[in-house]
Amino acid sequence: MADRDILVKVRNLYLEGRSDETWIPIINGASFDLRRGEVLGLIGESGAGKSTLGLAAMGFTRDGVRITSGKVLFDGVDLINASAAVKRELLGRRIAYVAQSAAASFNPAHKLIDQHTEAPVQHRVSSRIDSERDAMELYEKLRLPDPEHIGFRYPHQVSGGQLQRAMTAMAMSCRPDLIIFDEPTTALDVTTQIEVLASIRDIVSQFDTAAIYITHDLAVVAQMADRIKVMLKGDEVEESDTRTMLASPTQDYTKSLWAVRSFQRPQKPPPPAGAVPVVSVKNVTAAYGRVKVLHDITFDIHAGRTVAVVGESGSGKSTAARVITGLLPPLEGVVEFEGEPMPGDYRKRTKMQLRQAQMIYQMADTALNPRKTIGEIIGRPVEFYMGLKGQEKRERVKELLREIELEPDQFIDRLPSELSGGQKQRVGIARALAAEPKFIICDEVTSALDQLVAEGILRLLAKLQDELGLSYMFITHDLATVRSIADEVVVMKDGRVVEQGPKTEMFRPPHHPYTDLLLSSVPEMDPDWLTNLLAERGVDNIGDAAVGNM
Amino acid sequence: MIFESPYDNVFGDLIEAFGVFAVILAVLALFTFAGFLLRGIGSAFDSRGETFDEMPLFLASLLAVLIVASLTLLWSAFIGGRDTLRFLILLIAAIAAFGWLFRWAGQRLTNNAPRFRDMPYGVSFGYVLAAVVLIWSVWFYFQPVVTEQGTPRASVVFFRWAIQGLLIAAVLGTGFKELGKRVGPGWSRKLFRTMPLTASFGILVIIAYAIVAIFAPLIAPYGQEQVLGAANVVPGGNPALGGNPEFPLGTDQIGRDILSRLIYGAQNTVGIAFATTLLAFFIGASLGFLAATLGGWLDQLVSRAVDVLMAIPSLIFALLLMTIASVWAPRLGIPLTVFMVVIIAVIDSTRVYRLARAVGLNIVVMDYIEAAKLRGEGLTYLIFKEILPNATAPLLAEFGLRFCFVFLTIAALSFLGVGIQPPLADWGTMVRDMAAFINFAPFAPQAAITPLLAAGAIALLTVAVNFVVDWMLHKSSGLKE
Q1: Which CATH superfamily is domain B258-480 in?
Q2: Tell me, what's the pLDDT at B480?
Q3: Does ipTM surpass 0.85 in this model?
Q4: Which residue in A387, B10, B43, B434 has a CA-CA distance of 20 to 30 Å to B214?
Q5: What residues of A are in contact with residue B51 (Cβ under 8 Å)?
Q6: Nearest chain B residue (CA) to A349
């Protein structure tokens, strides 16, 4: 292909980040070409430097990051040495950026359309009136509901998926040559994600815009990108076009990424008839204030088994966990533990009852007290429930650390901030184990983690279940996780249990229509998946629209 | 006419009022019209047409007002003969021109280095302005201290003292920082390396104050109540100017050594302020955390009570309570100072309560607090082991600020006569006693400095504490990111 078709040319780019008085390398010599109208997928774990590289491709670095050497040419313009004035002309007009969280990136004080028209008017691309008309057209192209009026709402008045699409429309407002998408769907539910993906893909091909699509989700990148570049800790691993990459990855690291979703444990035999479940939720109705969020839900969790509770955000799955732990006393119904009804309020439960049911949280960052060492965090329940002190306590903590596969002497005196995300989550598990419970609630424990790390956590949980005979209630919105670890599945929607049963049955048709929708919305590694799905469902019957039609 | 009807003038007043009103209206209408005109001319001449087309009318009118005002200024400066004004306008114009020239020359000389290339005009204007101010300062510093008529020029004298003080502070701060970088354990050396100069100066001053306060009886040459021979000895120790080398900072109206009283004042004022702040924090922080953790009616009750206390102006409230306390104190046999400590602590604890509650509310929603609650932990454990360690950074920063305010309140109360009672030396009282000397400034700068010594001691500590607090706030906010 002719050289003039190359829009972005990145050569031997090295970046460093400031950390504690020294500069440490973030990107070690990245190079790539991006042609007009081409979509490049950047994937890697967190910390791989993919966001930094994406930003560097627009000649921008975050505070505390600097470009040490290399070249970034955008349409022949050297972006690294360009003056502020030159960059001002390019950024926003010819290069646009779509951030991960649209909710955090829109200014909550201005209407969508005011923010949309700002760039075109500022860059003198079009007048305010033309730009407004154009915004409405873009909203329509992105299949936002009521395109004539949605722009006159404030960011908090539209849903997350719509906001992400409005942000894409905003990036399109000057018809840029290049858009950088930084994990645009990571914060969304599967059913919402799919419509954003479809819209982005559509509009990018319609205007022949080049794009860099940054994500850690392989299945997503398979749908979006023409070429994929894999990053690991600032190094390039490999780069090739999507189909080649999916069919025959050459590097071991890429192969391991591809293999992550293969972890699956066999479903255990059903519990004997008449066995008393460890936890039994019976006809529970619960409300925040006057708003009822759970309607008459019933399910059992048997000894040594894993029950996955799935549903979108707002379906009441976390509220169910709050009712079981006693943080939210139910209005009606009862939670039984081994056949004995437990008081609805955790304050009225005995120390024994509290000890038996433990919880592992989604965000390990907020679940561990940042001012306490790992030894203190795990040691507290040991001391509190088991009455161990001094050397005995320390020994027990070390034992627990070994159980969660962390080197005890290395970790016991560290603070949570000195640990990686996966290690923090392991400490959270150890804290739950320290109470020697029979039942653990896992609230989205893997959703904030990279796939390889998440898989490690799932394997650990499975191992612990086999060794200690624990029962898990596994709250998640990720069906891949369900497939790998669950014995039974409970599907929730709008505070009701839609469907429940053993995993093998749940993944075999016929389904409840909502279960079907959830299952079919999970991206697959097949690059034609999205195209096929859209052909099957029709462009106007995906995501929110499909949920609404139900 | 025998009497004047009060109604006679009403009509006239109305006309007069209407007249004023009409003039205002006319001026407004005129400027609106001018704005309208300006916008019209603007959009006719502006090829791109965006700036003026979408300009609201009131902005255009404001612009018209600004243009008229600046024209008036120019007219009175250059035609009306206002020399100072003319000089100022020419100066600003010159700085503006040099600002542009500076950037242009920088770009030429450095071959368009990013530093000059991306420099906004405001910044280069700032550089030139700073250079002008610096040159002026040097020139002014070397002006003669005495006029040709033999009278002292107070402005030059005070300016010299200020510059000397700043230089000494900078030298001390740098020296202390360099010392800290080289001496001490690894963590403190690292701390000093990353510390700004202001913070190291602040720490140095706080240490110095602490040493002076603790060892006051050993350091002070005389007692704080000791009345020595001469009254009103001028500071400086120069007999030619009315000083006495035995009393380097002079004596007050009844002949007590000011240096000794300043040193003892550190003990009294700073010590009492420290105790008061500690008490305020104990009350405020424990109530605040309790309210944040428990919530519900207790939170409502305490918060509304705090609102009521905060609604009353604090200094006036303190004055009122101190007046009552001054009656009770002798009757109950408790020193008035104890009352003062408690009163100021209670009043200031309301501010601490607000902060502690706000910080606490952010912490209690964390999952680790939920985990601790579900474990069955008691309230004491929650507050002291889970919440407090995470709230120390903002609380420490607030402690520094609160200490300054308490300290100033004590000084103010003493200045008003209800604070620390004589003969105990106190900086606030010292300022009040010698405030009148400030009037000597134009002809006897040495004598005028007497009240400023105690005021300076207060100011220095306040500034030093704030330097340290700023740095700590910066650090703690950086950690959060």
Answers
A1: MetI-like (1.10.3720.10)
A2: 38
A3: no
A4: B434
A5: none
A6: B376
